[in-house]
Amino acid sequence: MLLIGNGKLITRSQTTPYLEDGAVVLDGETVRETGPLAGMRAKYPSAEFVDAKGGVIMPGLINVHTHIYSGLARGLSIDGFHPTNFYEVLDGQWWYIDRHLTLDGTRACAYATVLDCIRNGVTTIFDHHASFGEIPGSLFAIKDVCAELGMRACLCYEVSERDGEEKCAQAIRENADFARWAREENSGMIKAMFGGHALFTISDRTFEAMVKANDGLTGFHIHVAEGMDDVYDSLRTYGCRPLSRLLYNGILGEKTMLGHCIHLSPAELDIIKETNTMVCHNPESNMGNAVGCSPVLQMYNRGILIGLGTDAYTHDMLESLKVLLPMQRHNTCDPAAGWCEATGMLFQNNPAICAQYFPAPLGVLEPGAAADVIVMDYKPFTPFGAENIDGHMLFGMMGKNCRTTIINGRVVYRDREFVDVDEDAINAWTMEQSKKLWGELNHRSY
User: Fold this and answer.
1) What mean pLDDT do residues 103-109 have?
2) Which of 20, 56, 151, 100 is nearest to 441 (CA)?
């Protein structure tokens, strides 16, 4: 049993959202109780004490869309790569990288990504993977790394026809094999979705094969209308817009999540709402790729369940939150827009998306919820309380404030040191894989 205390407690619970000097008691994989520190210490005198040292105790953060395959790209410059549009970004950088990823490269990407997530207080990720250099076994390799480091994860593989029929078939099999494994394993830590890349890289025949292979095992996680390529291809080739294609092919539904959703019509937003399909928004990535601003506020107003991801642009969910709000205000020319929507996406909607896959409640500290807790090293110099928590999140805290991360009742990061993990050894091996990958991409040694 763990008792985390000596700090300001944010529970995100409707009954007791905040305690000035609070504590949370963890019993194995779930939260047992929250309350004032003195009362919890008296009630559970034998519990192991985790000292928050005056910081902020809060639920672990959730990222509903990232890409582990980009884990070795930090600092990379590809010789001769000068993109002028989004397709060239995909083909010249991300597809070029994933075509060279072996299973070892995938493992190295997973180590780099998961360690960074834990450092930033992220305790659950939804990953959308691609490694067309070596597809079979890639999701299982990522699963093993997540299990080793203690990360809660929902994984899928990116089906695409961009590298031919055989690679496409392998991607479908990898999704199906992993989804069957996840269903049989029935773990509270690792779940599966069925991934798909942008619609302009997937024909109706491939959609049919995906639905058949999935056979109702899980929902789909697919990129939609991130760039105009999806819209043009759907209209030109199929005579309809992207959401109609997904509807006709049986992809939509309450367990399916659509990534990006930038270039959609009002009628397409209605389709998303009527099918109870989920959406994930990735503001920094959208801005970095110059693809446009997703109609987040319109989705919110329609009652669409839209969550917040990063697309691996960062592993800091608070950074993503800080970009989301001004992006929407800039786009609408309204300095008062988006506050409740932005914070609601991260702190309410992301946990609601998780509820479609994980059995224990996430993103909240109350009895029966998952034992995912972080401690933020944050000492406010202005009043701090239940009424202005989100203001401090937006304008004060960052992922780097995280000092302790607990996932599923396991302390994985304590006082800025990883627990039972040889970080230096992992980094050294990951560096070897990075140099190998970069050498293959640029045809020279590093």
Assistant:
1) 98
2) 100
